[in-house]
Design goal:
With about 325 residues, the chain is α+β, with helices and mostly antiparallel strands. Among the domains are: about 40-145, Zona pellucida, ZP-C domain (Immunoglobulin-like), CATH 2.60.40.4100; about 205-325. It has 10 helices and 11 strands. The strands form 3 sheets. Strands 1, 2, 4, 5, 6 and 7 form a 6-stranded antiparallel sheet that branches. Strands 3-9-10 form a 3-stranded antiparallel sheet, with no helix packed on it. Helix 8 (about 270-290) runs antiparallel to helix 9 (about 295-315).
Length: about 325
């Protein structure tokens, strides 16, 4: 359409030589190039109160056939706490583009205006380099519960609790089941005591010893020098996830990066510094495995050093190993 308008304007000017000499046409103003990937943000409700749930939504609109990676913050977006998150299925738009939504449930613990920037959205065009889309800014105003009350000075006593009727049938069933289990366990132990043989018990090696040995074996394979970067990062990630499972008794190999970071931030298994180190390592590994990001040799060495540092700094102490052996 832009070429058609320029061609028509030129024909009209050349048709009148006097007008061309006396009143030259103004050059067309340059049109701003629309972004390849658009990022929009919204939040509901419009006026949340302190401690209430806020649905923060980021809409990403992009051409079809493009690779998109949305970063997952481990604990907070801005100064709002993350309690849940999810992604909707992409849907086709009339103009041929695709759109999908990434949402978070947030909680604010202070009143006033909170300005937040959307998490980083990276994309790669076919045959192109990894680029970052412009983030979306949003202001959320959190109101106080006292401001919402009609009369803040009207403070009344709380109502007494409502008694809940007790149904004793489940307790009877549980008691019967426990009695049966105790009887079976006692019988098994009595039978085992009759033919018990004293055998030395060899404690398995601690998880960090297994992980460090696996890291040494991975380096000996020299996958980076052979150009097998995806296999290298996959093996490196598997070692770290297996270590997490043995160290913290969590099914890390079955959880996504976002799910594990959110779970570890809730129960305090990892301190903030280790969560940040683990989040950066797993996010970079996901880019290599799923977004075909090609890291440099220095990046691969840094990833290996980050994995080894994480294992060294979070490994079991001597007193923990002795307690587990007992």
């Amino acid at each position: 359409m832009g070429r058609l308008v320029v061609a028509v304007g030129l024909w009209a000017t050349l048709g009148d030589g006097v007008a061309l000499a006396a009143d030259p046409p103004n050059p067309p103003e340059p049109q701003a190039t629309p972004p390849v990937v658009e990022v929009r943000a919204s939040a509901t409700p419009e006026r949340p109160t302190i401690g209430s749930h806020i649905r923060y939504q980021v809409d990403v609109v992009a051409p079809s056939g493009i690779e998109i990676v949305v970063a997952q913050p481990p604990e907070r977006i801005g100064d709002l706490e993350i309690v849940d998150f999810g992604t909707t299925e992409p849907k086709a738009l009339p103009d041929g583009k695709l759109a999908f939504e990434r949402w978070w449930t947030l909680v604010a613990w202070s009143t006033g205006e909170h300005r937040i920037t959307s998490p980083e959205v990276s994309y790669r065009l076919p045959g192109g380099d990894l680029a970052t889309a412009a983030p979306a800014e949003l202001a959320i105003t959190v109101a106080s519960l006292l401001d919402e009350a009609k009369d803040a000075s009207d403070i009344r006593d709380i109502k007494p609790p409502v008694p809940i009727p007790i149904d004793w049938r489940p307790y009877y069933a549980i008691a019967g089941a426990l009695t049966t289990i105790i009887a079976i366990v006692a019988l098994v132990r009595w039978l085992a005591a009759r033919r018990r043989r004293v055998t030395p018990r060899v404690a398995p090696p601690p998880p960090h010893v297994i992980a460090l040995a696996a890291l040494d074996a991975l380096r000996a394979r020299r996958l980076v020098e052979k150009g097998a970067l995806k296999e290298y990062y996959s093996a490196l990630t598997d070692i770290v996830r297996a270590y997490l499972e043995g160290r913290y008794r969590v099914r890390a190999p079955e959880m996504t990066t976002e799910e594990f970071l959110l779970a570890s931030s809730r129960d305090g298994r990892l301190n903030p510094a280790h969560r940040r180190l683990l989040g950066e390592f797993l996010t970079e590994s996901d880019l290599v495995k799923f977004a075909r990001y090609l890291p440099s040799t220095d990046d691969s060495e840094s990833a290996y050093a980050a994995a080894r540092r994480f294992v060294d700094e979070t490994k079991e102490r001597l007193e923990e190993i002795d307690r587990a052996a007992d």
